Input
Amino acid sequence: MRWLHGLRDASLLGASAGLLGVISLAARLDIPWVPATKDEAPALCGDDGTVLHADPGLPRIAVAECRRRLESVVFVDARSSEVFASAHIPGAISLPADEIDTVLASQSLPIPTDGELVMYCDRKDGGDAEYVGRALGEALGCQSVRVLEGGWQAWLDAAGPVEGAQQSG
Amino acid sequence: MQLAPSRGRNRVVDPRVRFAIVWAARIAVAATFVIAATPKVVELEAFATAIDNYRAFPRWSINGLAAVVPMLELVGAAAVMSGRQRWVRAGAIVLGGLTTAFIALVVSVLTRGIDLQCGCFGGNELTELVGWPTLVRDVALLSAIVVAGLETRRSASGAPVG
Output
C-alpha cells in the first residue's frame, strides 16, 4: 500500500519535473536545436551554393573510439579538396561531397568495401559525411560506413592527430 | 550482528548501521544525479544530440526528452535528500524508473552494436562510450537507489530518526 502511495507521489514529482522541463524549453526557444528534421538538414561543406539534403541515418562513431582504432578504420574526408590539403586525419581519403558523383563515375577508388569506413566533414551534424557515406554504400557496396560524431571540429577538440600543409598534431 | 526478531521478520542489520548505509546511499545517489543533470540543463542542445544519437526515439520527442530528463533527475535527487520517507520513496521510484530506462537503452545500444557517447553526464563529454562498464555502473546505481528508498525511521533505541 505504501508503495502505491509512493507511485502517486512519484507521479506528482514527475508532473513537477515535466512542468519544469516545459519552462526550460520555453526559455530556450531561440536555440537552433541540433536534432534537425530531415528537411532542415542541409548538406554541402563547400560554399558553392549547391544544397543537397542528407538523410541522417548512418550510425555514428565517437572520436574517442576512432582514436583507439586509428589503424583499423579508413577515414573518408567529405570536405573540399583545398581544406583537405590544408589539414586532415592521417591516412584519410579525400572525397568532397560536391564532387562525389563525378569522382565515383570516373575513378576506381582505393577504398576497401569490406573494411570499416568513417566519414567526416566540417558540419557538426555530419550532413556531408552522411551524403558521401550513402553514395559510397550505394556505388561500391561498402558494408560498414559510419559518421564521425561531431565531425572535424570534434576531432580537433579532442586533439586528434592531423596531417597536411598546416600540420598541428 | 543478528538482532531479535521484530514483527515476525528477522532483523539482520543493526538499525544504526542501516541508517548510515541508507543515508550514504541517498547522498551518493543524489550527488550522482545532480552531477549528471547540471551539464544537461546548461547544454540542452548537446544533450538533445546525445539522445538523438541513440536512434531510439522519434525525432519530435527529442527536445522534450532533453528538457524533462534532467529535471526528473534534479527533482528525484531533491526528493531522496528530503528525509521525509514519503518523498524519499517517491524520489526513489522516479530515479529507479529513469535508471531502468537508461539500462534498457544501454542494452539496446550494445545489442545493436552502435558506438556512441553515453551522454549520461551531458552531451559534451568526449570520453565515455556506451559499453559494458556503462551497464555495470547503471545496475550499481539502481541497487543504490533501492537502498536509498529504504526506511530509516527507527534508531537502535527505537526512537524516530528520520
Remarks:
- The longest helix of chain B spans residues 15-42.
- The CA atoms of residues 18 and 121 of chain B lie 30 Å apart.
- Helices of chain B lie at 15-42, 44-53, 59-80, 85-112, 132-148.
- Residues 15-148 of chain B form one domain.
